[in-house]
Amino acid sequence: MTVLILCFALLLGGFFCITASGLRHFHFFHAPPPEYDVLCYKTARTARILFIISVAGYIAALASIFFLSLNYIHLILCTILFIASVFIYSISRVQNTIHQSAKNQHDALDTALKKIKENELNIEEIVDNKIKDVVFQDKLLHAVNEVATLLLGSNIETFDGTLFACMDKIGTTLAVDRVYIWKNHYEGEELYCTQVYEWSGGAEPQQGNELTISVPFPDDWYSRLSCNKCVNGIVRTFPGVERGHLEAQGIISILVVPVFLHNEFWGFVGFDDCRAERFFADAEEAILRSVSLLFATSLLRNEMTVSLVNAKEEALSSARAKT
What we know:
Elements: H1 2-25, H2 38-66, H3 72-152, H4 159-174, E1 178-187, E2 190-200, E3 215-216, H5 219-225, E4 231-234, H6 240-247, E5 253-261, E6 264-273, H7 282-322
Antiparallel strand pairs: 1-2, 1-6, 2-3, 4-5, 5-6
Helix pairs in contact: 1-2, 2-3, 3-4, 3-7
């Protein structure tokens, strides 16, 4: 009788342990998680079936105890089935762990490949942009060389036409709507500037109107230009007075390059884009500084040549009058 009670206690404890284990680990009431692959799912399902059979066997063993007809072979068979179910389920867990590890590595590899492809695209885009910049700068430098050749070969009779042709060449290459030359002058003790030449390709000319004659310098512009710094930006971001003056001329983006002659702030050359917002690149600024200086020195040379010719004619006229 003691043996039967002990067996009953062992069977009851084993049943509760197996049931608890089944509910916790064998997903007795639920299918395996969705991250299982097909093989893991089939293995786990087999383990659950064996577990259910072993539990049923233990229930039958409990029933046999009540009828005092304990079947030890039955108990051994149930135990074997239970151990087999645990072993098979353990295999399924190992399979799932391997599968999940492989899946994580695969996902990590996919993520790395995507990043590599994105970086390749970014690199290709950067290289393409750099190539375009180099080609554009080469084109602009070629235009500057042509301008230098034309201006050096000009004379006082052809200078105006040559200068306009050169401004047209630069404006077209740079894809801007206006190119203009402004010269500084004093009225009393105040510094003013006046537009002396303008080329206009796709915008209304401003030469000779009140916005381009004897204009006082805005403080911000003077502080920058007099320190040999360019004004480069989008007009809508400028302060109110400057923005209003430029918007009245239809300017959307602007580059203003200061010109110094004999270490003095002589004036500036401007480039207007009246169609799009843009910032002029540093390389463009550097090239356009050379162009601006070339325009100013050519203009100064022509003015000096005209003055000398006029002085010579006046001298000859005076000599003739005396004779």
